[in-house]
């Protein structure tokens, strides 16, 4: 019942193999480094030519970015903004006229000038400015030169055609954008109405913002004020309950994860056999229940009669539920077959369950012998976060380095922007807004940059797998000991393995990570193409079905490659061979010992899932109980709601537990493949098995557990 294979005559030694390690798949490492150099160059070009503010703040009506001297972007015509937000045409937020000011203007004027105006730049490119005024003088005059305009331009300005616009609403600077709030200023509106009447113009909706200011204020409240206020309360809750977050969101999950590892170490057998027993009892119970409801056992069969049950036995009464009873009977037969097969399969697997339990125990023993290894994955996670931050910054700069060009939008009569142009027939002075346009070269740069992110994150994961596999392989082939590897905290087994794997097998990591990254990249491209087809209205039922099938197949293929890679890295850590050879060897060992691998995976995955769920649930429960104490329900430390803090503790508890359990999972897989390789090398009798695993195997020697089910061909017998 062991992981058996044909015996190799060549003497094999893990120590000798380590000394004879050679660098593997060097060409892929060179390719990865060359790619990363190109990625750095692309990033430098992005940082040199991009301006992220263009994405966040946009441009003014001349296509220029707001500068440090004039940082506040102001929309002089609120009605235009409102119309654009309500319209269904392509005229949108980017097309609304805006200008850059030093500060957001106020509608509150003086006794002499009760109405404030914001006018075009004095050097406005459309020629409708004040040529004899500088920008500095314009700002010093509070952006107002309305009194210097001709009579016609004053009339245009009163009708929201510029070059000056009345300030009727209060604004506040939010992320360097002047946002409308509050109510319309009555004094300013009265003054504007007086000017309109004096010029023979009847005030209309476009002159009076009272009917739309509520909509504008509501929009601002929904988008900014509401979420901001709620977030502010949650931030305050975190500031009050930071101790709970620290204790129950970090310390408790770490402690609980170690406790669960202890449970795995000492109670794996109990859990394993309990799972097997409950599965079989459940199958038998369902079968008996179906027979009862079908009327074969007892008299509790289903019936359609809702009245006196005695009438159901009367002469000439036909129960319409008899068809249902017949269906249940067939289901009972099928359930009987399933339960019988499950019982037979269980009896066959019982011998392998003992091996599976021992493998899991050895894996947890390997971790407890060098507990520092459990924290090793934190290092590549931090590196990934740092790289992700750089990647995001470079991507934003690259995306913002496009050429600023005029947008294309509807130019239909009665719709903006013609509605707010002094001369709607003048195309040069009546145009849409500006946007950053990506040229073909920039698009290719972004795709290159995206693939670099995918490849690097997978490369870091591959190095992590190789390091952990090397640690646990050292423990197994050391007979259940790290030997001299526990020399100190500076030179731990994890650090030793990391140095060894990165020096010899970074090329293999680059190879395996490239395969996964390529599939991820293809999936993203396909998803983007599907999204574009939906936008173009070409997503008919055939396209949807085909896209779904293609995306699922790519996802499934990616999972297969990831599974192969994981086991390949283990074989690389054990034998130090190339990626392709190790992949073939890993697949061969797994399929030749498929039943043992299945038993370990079923039991291991179940216990690890229970561990993650239990740690997260207990952390959340303890956080809730802690927040329910008087400390956090009354007084200065009172929190408005425990919900967000509890969710935080549950999520972080699950993340920390997953980090621990991923290490345990790698330990289990490495121990299993090491055991199978040990059996194959030594003719079915493992030579390096740790004492804990050897003690289980010793009990089964009389049953000849190491002879393959296919004889000398080396199939599963564990």
TrEMBL record:
Q: In terms of one coarse class, where is the protein primarily found?
A: membrane
Q: Where is the chain membrane-spanning?
A: 26-48, 241-263, 270-292, 327-348, 381-399, 450-477, 509-530, 581-600, 607-627, 639-660
Organism annotation: Micromonas pusilla
* Keywords of this entry: Glycoprotein, Membrane, Transmembrane, Transmembrane helix
Question: Which is an annotated GO molecular function term of this record?
Answer: transmembrane transporter activity
Could you name the Gene Ontology cellular component terms for this entry? plasma membrane
Full protein name: Choline transporter-like protein
Q: How does it sit in the membrane?
A: Multi-pass membrane protein
What does the protein in this record do? Choline transporter.
